[in-house]
Design brief:
There is one protein chain. This protein is an all-alpha fold. It is built from 59 helices and four strands. Belongs to the RPAP1 family.
């Protein structure tokens, strides 16, 4: 290891000292203490040199002797030099190879010849030196030290001066700012130091030797030394020019003009101008680099400025210096902060959750000022509130939680307003983690904090309307609609598709036991991110159910209102989570706790107004209803434990005190809704038959029309009762499907026929009338099995009332034509009578009347019930030609059928059976048997899987496991009213081509037994039939592009592209004629990209431009100028408004241009001057970046690579450029020359 006797260099402490020493050394011209003089080459060791060494004295001894020619002086150090004789003496020292003079160790090796040979040392600067073997010299330290140390003499010191700090020097300036001045070694810092120096304009021309003269810094002096000669020469030339007379200057100029050529003189003049311009720019850059403000704007514009930390470097950063600077800093800080962070850290709220106007002066006595980041401003930001929610002071935590509760309530109430929507999003942002703070607060040990935490969590979870009490129970119209008991929450999903490789790997992992479950994968996502994606799942992971169970125990210290908040939280979680959450709630034994708290340990009837907290909880019964919807298993448990609820139905509402009668109505309605849910599963309470008398009373109350007295409460209760009786008819029709069996007999629900028929006859259009129509529609559907109703009313009496209600005057006043449920109920009623033998003819004529047709036409695409009305009407009006005539416009009917069919296909399990019926009736029945058999797999979406879905339309209770069927939607998906219906229809009709194009990712394509050619040919032919009048232009173009990319392996041959098949070629030409020759519609790049996303969204996320690149490459490699392929490509090149699409072919694939031999008429190109549906071709395209494309046009024309439509298009594009002002004249001249040729 090498060791150095030199002191180690410390860059932070010794850098400036070392530079100061170097500067003083050069200024004083100090004589070095030693110097090295290179001697001659070493001489070889011989016997003569050895003898000479024996005769001469040692170097140390020679050095001790005084030299005769050099007198010794005091105070002067002796200069040591090595002469040639000393070099010989050094060479004469004994070597390691001289074994005769060196004793050997006793046990050491004595064979010196065994040592490895040593290579000679070669002087790289002497080419003629002889070869000298390498030697290892034994050093004579005594002689060497003598040469180095020489004589040591002491200087005489006459006066000793104590050390002092040099004022005005650089080192005295290091502490002016309170910090040591950093070492400057970069050129940037050197320039800054030189620029800020007071003497920066006076560059020293000579080095002074005095020790009192100081330079700005050592680094700047070095920089001056480098730049000094250049500045001297320049200044000298300038001075000489100034000293010259006018005659001398003119003579010198003439001499230069005569001696140099004109080009040289012009070059020198331009160089001088450029030099001046560069020097000016450099000076500006240097000034900008020296200015901290300029540097901030230039290099760190996006970084927030910390003025307080920069104030010591530049006074302009001192925001307290003046008020205008403070306002400017605040304004800059405002612009650099993003909107969300501004709301999180800048918007301040009062204790009522309302934002505070920063321009208003809030009095201090309101208590909104605090010791936060900005104590002069009133109110609290969300950042401060989430910080204070962790305070150690319980009252402070309570205050913060109450404020957060009110902020959340205001945000939920003002949904749709951008400000409040952003505030609400902040609570769910992962970095804010608002839900985590509120969930943690629910574990607080202080009761006052716990109550506030429960209210805050309720404000976060509950939506607008969840806080309602009795009023919410009266809004039962949607629940009483057809299949209104089915919950359809919207669940946002992210589609993920796997190819064959991924699926194979997944299968192998599953077989090896390595497959990760979905729950395990979700564990990798932290709680904050899970809350942002799904609030319900996030809270469940944070064990909120276990905490609610603890807080709702019988010995809980929480007040009744807080427990009710917890129950409402459970209701919202159950609605959002479906069957899984309902099952989890039951597994946590929350059902027993809620029943004990809200039902079993409550007083009844409600006779005293001052005992509200002791009466049954409406929220508890509502929770039972929601849980029963979610899971059949939970419904079975509720059916066993909820018999205590029947006392609310048996007690008249007038028994309650007047102020609580609305609450009594609400309890009865919620209980009836729960009974309807249970009967849907076939679960019947044993004491349901005991409700015969109360139910009759409710229906009679609805018949009397006491709407003005109780705000429609009797109607709501009567309509809910009729809906329960309608479901009971399905249960009574097959008593073996109920639990327990035969729990409902047919005569029980039909005993109410007279009073319901009276409601049908007398009531005006309303919710109650619609439920009565639905009751008789269900009753009529079992007419052949149960022909007689009772002793007083027959089916003929029912039909007579229906005929009277419908009327024969061409108008129907008994139907709310704008509501899908009303139309559906009458269609179902007429369809049920049309299915019966007795009334088939009359009922069918009624269905085929223009009156019913107009009602169906009005609601056919409103919603699920409207599409169901359309399907029911089409089933009973069997002749399609009759349906088209009744519709009025045959083309409109074809579109209406497709709209309803496609919408049903995309609405999930609830409409699965309806969608199958519509596809069979409106699509497959229109095709011949061969086409239908080929495309049925794709259009029916794999019919074999439909057996897994519950047939809700058959009301088969025992098969139902849940009544919650979510509508799965992708995030950021457009609402149905904003989706282009024609685009959706076209995409669905062409969907078999998309499935075959994505063969490796499509389950249906892999299951298909037909060839790709058969499927594609059948799809093109079916599309011609189904889309004979209207088609989405861009969607059809993209589908045709896909088929040109498809291949198929033929028997005994290699893979071949399917577009070579004759059937495909014929169908493609027909579609190209229809699409490309259309003078009213074209497809630009944006519409093609949108069509690509919609048609391929189920399989791939590849951008359309990549697909287009593959399409062009496919044409270049395998098309051989195929007419259809070339025609489609030429159409895109001409009608696309994107330069990238054109430049890809005209420049990168210019060799294929000669193969695109398509006339203008074949692609619908009529020149730039003809009227075009999308405006002028290329209009709106940015021309400033199209020079390369224009050059590509010119190159193709000059080389005769294009003909037909492409040649005409390129020439028109070039002609159009000549009138553009933003095109260079040089380019215009080239275009003009080309066009003249």
């Amino acid at each position: 290891m090498k060791r150095s006797i030199r002191p180690r260099f410390n860059a932070e402490e010794d850098d400036e000292d070392l530079e100061q020493l170097q500067k003083e050394f050069f200024e004083k011209n100090t004589i070095p203490s030693a110097s090295v003089i290179k001697g001659g080459p070493p001489t070889s060791v011989t016997n003569q040199t050895i003898k000479k060494k024996e005769e001469k004295k040692s170097l140390f001894a020679q050095q001790r002797e005084p030299h005769p020619s050099t007198p010794t002086q005091k105070g002067v150090k002796k200069k040591v030099t090595f002469d040639y004789e000393d070099q010989e003496a050094l060479a004469s020292m004994p070597t390691l190879e001289d074994v005769d003079t060196m004793p050997l160790l006793d046990n050491g090796p004595n064979d010196m010849n065994a040592m490895p040979p040593l290579e000679g040392v070669v002087d790289p600067h002497n080419d003629n030196q002889p070869h000298v073997p390498a030697t290892k010299k034994m050093l004579d330290l005594t002689s060497l030290l003598g040469n180095v140390l020489c004589d040591v003499t002491e200087n005489q010191v006459k006066k000793v001066e104590p050390p002092t700090l040099k004022l005005g020097t650089e080192r005295s300036k290091q502490h002016t700012q309170g910090f040591p001045k950093p070492a400057r070694r970069s050129l940037f810092k050197m320039r800054m130091e030189a620029k800020n120096n007071n003497n920066k304009n006076a560059m020293p021309t000579e080095q002074t030797t005095t020790t009192t003269t100081t330079t700005p810094t050592s680094s700047s002096s070095l920089l001056q030394q480098h730049t000094q000669p250049k500045n001297d020469y320049e200044q000298d030339n300038i001075d000489r020019i100034h000293e010259m007379t006018e005659e001398e200057i003119e003579a010198a100029r003439k001499e230069i003009m005569d001696s140099l050529s004109s080009d040289s003189i012009a070059m020198l003049m331009n160089r001088g101008k450029n030099k001046s311009k560069e020097e000016q720019e450099n000076n500006e850059d240097e000034e900008g680099e020296e200015d901290l403000m300029v540097m901030k704007e230039r290099y760190f514009a996006d970084v927030p400025t910390e003025y307080e930390k920069l104030a010591w470097m530049d006074s302009r950063f001192d925001v307290n210096h003046s008020q205008p600077l403070l306002q400017e800093a605040e304004k800059e800080k405002e612009t650099t902060t993003n909107e969300e962070d501004k709301m999180y850290r800048r918007i301040r709220f009062d204790f009522q959750g309302q934002p505070i106007d920063p321009t208003k002066d809030v009095p201090v006595h309101q208590g909104l000022h605090h010791h936060g980041d900005e104590p002069d401003k009133a109110g609290y930001t969300l950042a401060e509130l989430f910080y204070l929610v962790r305070s150690q002071v319980a009252p402070q935590r309570t205050m913060v939680l109450n404020t957060l509760t009110k902020i959340l309530r205001n945000a939920k109430y003002n949904r749709g307003i951008e400000f409040w929507d952003n505030i609400l999003a902040l609570f769910l942002r992962p970095d804010v983690a608002g839900a985590l703070y509120l969930r943690s607060a629910m574990d607080d040990r202080h009761l006052i904090v716990l109550v506030s935490a429960v209210q805050a969590m309720a404000a976060l979870v509950l939506e607008k309307g969840d806080d309602l009490d009795e009023e919410d129970s009266f809004h039962v119209e949607q629940f009483n609609e057809y299949l209104g008991y089915v919950a359809r929450p919207i669940v946002y999903i992210k589609k993920e598709t796997m190819g064959l490789d991924e699926k194979f790997a997944t299968t192998v992992n599953r077989l090896q036991g390595k497959e990760k479950k979905k729950e395990e994968e979700e564990e990798l996502e932290d709680d904050a991110h899970l809350v942002q994606r799904d609030l319900t799942k996030g809270l469940l992971r944070m064990d909120i159910l276990a905490r609610i169970r603890y807080l709702t125990l019988p010995n809980s210290e929480l007040d009744s209102k807080s427990i009710e908040h917890l129950v409402r939280i459970l209701i919202r979680l159950a609605k959002s989570g479906g069957a899984d959450v309902c099952q989890s709630i039951m597994e946590h034994d929350l059902l027993d706790n809620i029943l004990q708290w809200g039902v079993l340990k409550r007083d009844w009837p409600m006779t005293h107004q001052d005992k509200m907290d002791t009466y049954p909880s409406l929220a508890a019964i509502r929770l039972l209803t929601v849980l029963a919807q979610g899971s059949r298993r939970v419904a079975e448990e509720i059916n066993k434990k909820a018999t205590h609820l029947l006392q609310y139905l048996a007690t008249p509402t007038h028994v309650a005190c007047p102020s609580l009668q609305n609450r009594a109505y609400a309890l009865q309605i919620e209980t009836i809704k729960l009974l309807r849910i249970l009967v849907c599963y076939g679960l019947v309470m044993p004491t349901l038959q005991d409700l015969q008398e109360p139910m009759m009373t409710w229906l009679r109350a609805g018949l009397i029309q006491q709407q003005q007295d109780n705000n429609g409460l009797d109607d709501a209760r009567a309509a809910t009762t009729i809906s329960l009786l309608e479901i009971s008819l399905h249960a009574a029709a097959d008593p073996h499907k109920t639990t327990p069996p035969h729990a409902v007999d047919w005569h029980q629900p039909t005993a109410f026929v007279p009073v319901i028929l009276a409601i049908l006859r007398t009531r005006e259009p309303s919710m109650l009338l619609d439920t009565a129509v639905g009751y008789f529609a269900t009753l009529a559907s079992y007419m052949d099995r149960f022909p007689s109703v009772d002793d007083t009313t027959t089916t003929a009496d029912i039909w007579k009332v229906i005929v009277e209600k419908l009327g024969d005057n061409g108008t129907i006043t008994s139907i709310r034509s704008h509501r899908s449920n009303s139309v559906l109920r009458y269609v179902q009623l007429l369809g049920a009578f049309a299915s019966a033998k007795t009334f088939k003819s009359d009922a069918t004529d009624r269905l085929a009347s223009p009156l019913i047709t107009s009602l169906v036409k009005q609601v056919h695409n409103n919603d699920f019930l409207g599409r169901l009305a359309m399907g029911s009407w089409a089933i009973h009006v069997k002749d399609r030609s009759d349906r088209r005539k009744l519709w009025g416009n045959e083309n409109d009917y074809d579109t209406a059928e497709m709209e309803s069919t496609v919408a049903s296909m995309h609405m999930g399990a609830l409409e699965k059976q309806l969608a199958r019926n519509m596809v069979q009736l409106c699509v497959l029945d229109r095709l011949d048997s061969k086409l239908a058999s080929t495309l049925a797999l794709f259009y029916l979406q794999d019919a074999d899987t439909t057996a897994d879905y519950p047939l809700l339309l058959d009301h088969n209770g025992p098969r139902l496991q849940t009544l919650v069927y979510p509508d799965y939607q992708e995030q950021n998906q457009k609402p149905p009213e904003e989706i282009d219906t024609l685009s959706s229809i076209t995409a669905w009709v062409f969907s078999p081509i998309d499935e075959m194009y994505h063969m490796e990712k499509s389950r249906l394509a892999r299951k298909c037994m037909d060839s790709s050619v058969d499927v594609v040919a059948a799809t093109l032919e079916a599309a011609g039939i189904l889309l004979n009048k209207a088609v989405d232009h861009a969607m059809a173009i993209v589908s045709l592009m896909k088929l040109f990319m498809m291949t198929e392996e033929l028997a005994g041959e290699e893979e071949r592209e399917i577009f070579w098949d004759d059937r495909i070629t014929r169908q493609v030409n027909q579609w190209l004629d229809r699409l490309l020759l259309n003078k009213t519609k074209t497809s630009d790049a944006e519409s093609l990209e949108s069509a690509w996303r919609r048609s391929s969204s189920a399989h791939i996320r590849q951008p359309f431009y990549q697909f287009y690149q593959a399409f062009v490459a496919q044409y270049a490699s395998v098309s051989f100028g195929h007419s259809g392929f070339a025609r489609l490509l030429a159409y895109i090149l001409i009608h696309s408004d994107s330069m990238d699409y054109k430049y890809l072919v005209w420049s990168d694939h210019c060799d294929i241009l000669s193969t695109i031999k398509v006339n203008s008429e074949e692609v619908g190109y009529y020149g730039n001057n003809q009227s075009h549906p999308n405006g002028k071709i290329g209009e709106g395209e940015t021309r400033r970046n199209s020079t390369a494309l224009l050059r590509a046009y010119m190159s193709a024309l000059a080389e005769n690579k294009v003909e037909g439509s492409l040649r005409e298009f390129a020439m028109n594009e070039l002609k159009d450029v000549l009138n553009k002002e933003d095109v260079s004249n040089h380019l215009k001249r080239d275009i003009s020359d080309l066009l003249k040729k």
